[in-house]
Every structure is written in C-alpha cells, then in structure tokens.
C-alpha cells in the first residue's frame, strides 16, 4: 500500500507483527508543509462560513464512508500497527461516534453567550462573547492509535470551523492517508483536511506554520512542541505520557477487579497513554487477587493478529519501545521482583513481548515510576487506601487513575484526592468514549483537554463584544475630568463596596 506521492525522500512502513514492509510514504519538507498550510488557510475561510448544518452533513458523509469501509480501515490499522483486530475496531467506533457527537454539539457549545454585569458603570451596555475558529489546526498524531488519536482529534477542530493539517506518526501513516481519501470521495471542500507525512522535521514544520497545535505523544517531545509554540505565541494542547495507577480496595468484587485490570493493562498491547501501568492492592485481598489475576494472565493470547478472538495482545509497534519494556522488566527482576507470568521478549518475525505479571515490586523500580508502554503489569501490596493514595500521587505523571471498590462514597472520596486529570471507579479507560466528559492530564501528562466543552472550545478564539445601546454625548468619567463627578464616583463605590476610599481622594 502506498500513498502515490511524488518520488523523493521516502519512509518505509513495516508490519510490526511480521517485519514485512507494507508501504512507503513521502517525507514532506518544510516548504511542502508551508504550502499545505497555505492551501488550508485559503480553504478555511469558506469552511468557517458554512452553517453548522452544512458541516454536519459533511460529517454524516464521512461517518457513512467510515462504516462502509470499516474492514479496509481495520485491516490497514492492524497491518501498520500490529494491534489485535478488536483494538482496531475500537478506533473506528470512536471516530464514528465522534462524527455524530461533534456534529450535534458544536452549535450549542460554540454559541454566543450573553454577559450580564452588576457594575453600575456599564449600565445600558449589551455584552456577549463569541467563538471564532483559530484558522489552521495542526494535529500531530501518535503511532499507538493511528485513527483515534490522529483523525479523531481533527473532527472537533473541523466542527469548530477550522481547517486541519494532520501529521501522523511516520511509523503508522497509512490510516491517515485513508482519511484523506475519505475526504476526497465524500466531496468535502478541497484542502480543508490534508495529511503531510514525515518524521520529526515534518512535525516541526507543522508547529512552525499552523495557528494551533494538538499533539499526542511523549512528554519529552511535548516539551519541545510547547516551547516552540510559546516562541510563536500560538496555543497548544498536549496529551503526553502516563503512569496510570489502579487501586483495588478490600471491599472490591475481585472478579470485576481482575477483569478491569487486565483490560486496562493489556488492551492495545499496553500501548496507551491511559494504560494501567501499576496496581496497588489492599492487603486483605492481595493474595486472592493475585491468584485470580495470574490465572487470567495465563489465558491471554499474544501473537500475530488474526480473526476476531484469535489474539488478545498484538505486536510492539515502535521498535525502540521493545528495548524500554525489556529494560523495565529486567530492572525490576534485578531488584527483587518476580515475574509470575511472562518476562521475556519473543523472537521474530515481528516484535513481541510476553504479557508479563510482576509482583514484589516497589518504587525503586523503573516499572513503577517510568512509562513502560507495553504488555506488563506490576502489582504492589499496600496496607490500606492511605498508603495506596500516597503511592499513586508519588509520580511525575497525572493522566488517569482507577479505583475498584463497592463502597461508592469511600471510592469517590478517595478519587477526589488523586492527583490525576481523570479518575474512573470500577472501570478503566471507558471514560474515553464519553465525549462529553473532559479528558486531560495533570503534571507532566500534558496541557489542556480533549472532549467536553473545552475539547472543542480550545480550537476557537474568544471574542468579547460590548455595545453601548443608549450612548450619551459625554460620560461623567471622561476627560476633561470634573472633581464633582469623581467625588460622586467615590461615594458610589463606598456605598456599593464598603468604606476605605473616603478621606484619601480629594
């Protein structure tokens, strides 16, 4: 599969499950990116002038195309990413629902807002705020979700009236090119959505030319994006790394706890910013939890993706990530941890690491402090919820966390003490499908949110309008200043807001 781009610098795309090259894409130069952004800027004006219903109709065409081509898209995601078929289907479900959600909600969330002031100094003024598209939004997507976290972020930006230039990961660019084909075949306005392929230099060129950057990726790269955006004085939204924790309380249903834990840790091969990467279990249920968890881990099927149900954990998509996973597991084992299941990489073809369950872990180990991004799960025994809370918050990351327990009042109280942008109770990751619920990280896990009202408003500029409906020839505060007028103003302030000015102004 190729993108049909002109010859020049080319990037090979491999299948992580087989090692076979499945396509080539061009590496866009800074000049080519600038041209794409210029085209997008011209197209954006007409797109922004469309009413909400017209943009919603284009979204409806896109949704129908997405569902009509679901098998082709699924195959493409699996081929370039190496994930299980079920994990690829989740990406399609997300984008179909995102098309529907933002088409319906954009008008309400971006509507003009009347402002009322209690100040007597603005009596008679009509005031309101309005949302204006930023212009061209640059979306820089990650390799772990080539549809969901790439084109998925373009949807609300487009719904807000922006044009979008998407730079997918050079490791998984083929799915993004399918979306560019979708736009063409659905007769969307030309250049309102474009894809530029390439590696780091192409991404830097996007940041250097667009009006807003939506970046999903590592904290290290996110800092560079934020720094460059700051130099240009353009806003950015960053979803970065995570070391998401899950706490199992003593009153939890262990069956539910184990199922949520495995799904949170191993879906998408553990290659999610929101993957469960560390678990803390209250001592009274630790042994029973580990026994059941080990039994379920032994049932997990890892390998080359096939038909539905044939594989639970696919390949390691990003080649250097395999080294990170191996390092974290070996570091833990060298410091006294035990691997109850797995613990090794698997010889090729393809890149695989065994689903791995680690116990006897502590916070001196990399697997409990640094982002692993793989099919591993360290589990630690804690005396009580207070110890779990301290350890959960003992992290430079703060993306998501989960609690499993039966006492909802206790679980909610604990959740509100977690230093994380999102907390789920008796769930893990399911909040991502609730597009009305904001999702964003604290600390080194990022800036801004996706989803919710702010997930679309961030793609707009806020303009405030104040209109004097009954203007007089001259207001009392205007130049030339009149002492009597300002004495009246001071007396009025005293009456309204309390004493303190009297005697100091003459």
Automatic annotation (TrEMBL):
The active site is at 239. Keywords: Oxidoreductase. The keyword GTP-binding does not apply. SUPFAM superfamilies: ALDH-like (SSF53720). It comes from the Bacteria. Residues 9-464 form the Aldehyde dehydrogenase domain. GO terms for molecular function: oxidoreductase activity, acting on the aldehyde or oxo group of donors, NAD or NADP as acceptor. The keyword Repeat does not apply. Gene3D superfamilies: Aldehyde Dehydrogenase, Chain A, domain 1, Aldehyde Dehydrogenase, Chain A, domain 2. Belongs to the aldehyde dehydrogenase family. This is Aldehyde dehydrogenase family protein. It comes from Streptomyces spongiae.
């Amino acid at each position: 599969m190729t993108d049909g781009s002109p010859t020049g610098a080319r990037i090979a795309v491999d299948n992580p499950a087989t090692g076979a090259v499945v396509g080539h894409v061009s590496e866009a130069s800074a000049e080519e990116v600038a041209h794409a952004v210029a085209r997008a800027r011209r197209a954006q004006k007409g797109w922004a002038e469309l009413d909400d219903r017209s943009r919603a109709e284009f979204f409806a065409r896109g949704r129908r195309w997405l569902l009509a081509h679901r098998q082709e898209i699924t195959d493409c995601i699996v081929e370039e990413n190496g994930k299980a078929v079920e994990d690829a289907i989740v990406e399609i479900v997300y984008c179909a629902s995102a098309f529907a959600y933002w088409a319906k909600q954009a008008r309400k969330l971006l509507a003009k807002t009347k402002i009322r002031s209690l100040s007597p100094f603005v009596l008679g003024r009509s005031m309101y705020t309005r949302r204006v598209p930023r212009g061209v939004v640059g979306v820089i997507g990650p390799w772990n979700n080539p549809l969901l976290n790439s084109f998925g972020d373009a949807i609300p930006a487009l719904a807000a009236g922006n044009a979008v230039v998407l730079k997918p990961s050079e490791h998984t660019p083929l799915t993004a090119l399918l979306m560019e084909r979708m736009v063409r075949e659905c007769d969307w306005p030309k250049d309102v959505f474009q894809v530029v392929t390439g590696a780091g230099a192409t991404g830097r060129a996007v940041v250097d030319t667009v009006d807003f950057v939506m970046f999903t990726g590592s904290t290290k790269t996110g800092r560079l994006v934020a720094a460059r955006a700051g130099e240009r004085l353009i806003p950015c939204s960053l979803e970065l790394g995570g070391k998401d924790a899950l706490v199992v309380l003593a009153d939890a249903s262990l069956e539910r706890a184990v199922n949520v834990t495995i799904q949170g840790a191993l879906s998408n091969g553990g290659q999610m910013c929101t993957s469960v990467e560390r678990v803390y279990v209250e001592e009274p249920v630790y042994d029973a939890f580990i026994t059941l968890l080990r039994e379920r881990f032994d049932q997990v099927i890892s390998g080359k993706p096939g038909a539905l149900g044939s594989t639970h954990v696919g390949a390691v998509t990003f080649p250097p990530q395999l080294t990170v996973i191996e390092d974290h597991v070996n570091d833990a084992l060298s410091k006294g941890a035990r691997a109850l299941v797995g613990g090794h990489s698997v010889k090729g073809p393809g890149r695989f690491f065994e689903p791995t369950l680690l116990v006897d872990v502590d916070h001196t180990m990399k697997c409990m402090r640094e982002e692993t991004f793989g099919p591993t799960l360290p589990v630690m025994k804690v005396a009580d919820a207070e110890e779990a809370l301290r350890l959960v918050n003992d992290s430079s990351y703060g993306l998501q966390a989960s609690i499993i327990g039966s006492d909802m009042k206790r679980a909610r109280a604990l959740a509100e003490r977690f230093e994380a942008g999102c907390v789920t109770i008796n769930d893990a990751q399911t909040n991502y499908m609730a597009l009305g619920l904001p999702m964003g990280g604290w600390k080194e896990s990022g800036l801004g949110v996706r989803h919710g009202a702010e997930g679309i408003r961030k793609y707009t500029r806020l303009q405030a309008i104040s209109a004097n409906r009954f203007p007089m020839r001259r207001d009392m505060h205007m130049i030339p200043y009149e002492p009597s007028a300002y004495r009246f103003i001071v007396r009025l302030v005293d009456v309204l807001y309390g004493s303190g000015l009297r005697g100091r102004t003459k």
